[in-house]
Amino acid sequence: MDVIETFSYQLVKWLIDNDITNVDVDLGIDFGYYNDKHVIEYSLFTQDHVDEEFARFFYEYGCEKTVSIFTMSFLHEVGHAMTLSSFTKEEYEDLMDTLEMAHKAVKLNPKEREHFSLDWYWHMPHEFAANIWAINFINNHFDKVCALEKIVKTNLDTIYSDNDIVAALYQWLDQLNEEEA
Ligand SMILES: [Zn+2]
Predict the structure, then answer these.
(1) What's the pLDDT tens digit per position in 126-160?
(2) Which strand (E) or helix (H) includes residue 94?
C-alpha cells in the first residue's frame, strides 16, 4: 500500500531531521520497538482501554501538552530506542522475559491480569524510562512534536477516509492473525 509506505517514510524522515538516524519505521499489528532490528512498528488499530491508561500515565507524570494518542505512542517507542543504553543487555533480556512470562500467565488464566495490570506494565523500568523520555521530549521540544503531529494527522486522515485502504488494512491484519494462530 503506497500510502502506508509514504507514511512510514515521513516518520523516518522526521526521526532523521531530529538526529535519530539509526531507527527504521514500519507498520505493525501493535506499537512496538524491536531493539534487535532497531525498528519501530506503529499500529493503525487502536485499543481504547490501553490508550486510556497510557495517556493517563503521561499526564500523571508531568506531560504539559495535549498530544494525540498516535504521536504519544510513537514517541514512547522512540523513547525505547533512546533509553536502550540505560540498560545492560542482561537487564533488558530479563525485562523481556518477565513480559513474556506475564503474557503467558494472563493467557492461561485471565485472573492473572490483576497481578500484571496495565499499571504494572507501565511501571516496568524500560517502559517507565521510555514514557519519561517521551514526556520530556513533548515538554521541551513541542515545536518538533507539532511537526510530527502534522505528519500523523495528514496521513491518518488520508488512510481512514479511504474505505478501500481501511478494508485492505483489516485484510492484512486478519491474515497476520491467522498466520499467528
Ligand atoms: Zn513500550
Answers:
(1) 999 999 999 999 999 999 999 999 999 999 999 99
(2) helix 89-108
- Give the model's pLDDT for residue 79: 97
CA of 67 relative to ligand 1 center, distance in Å: 17
Q: Is 22 helix (H, G, I), strand (E, B) or coil?
A: coil
Burial (CB < 10 A; 0-12, 13-18, 19+), residue 51, is: middle
CA of 153 to the centre of ligand 1 (A): 22
- pLDDT attached to residue 55: 92
Distance 80 CA to ligand 1 centre (A): 7
32 has which bridge partners?
Answer: 41
What's the CA gap between 178 and 40, in Å, rounded? 23
CA of 91 to the centre of ligand 1 (A): 15
Distance CA 46, CA 157 (A): 15
10 Å CB burial of residue 110 (0-12, 13-18, 19+) is exposed
CA-atom Rg of the chain in angstroms: 17
Of 180, 160, 156, 178, the residue nearest 168 (C-alpha): 160
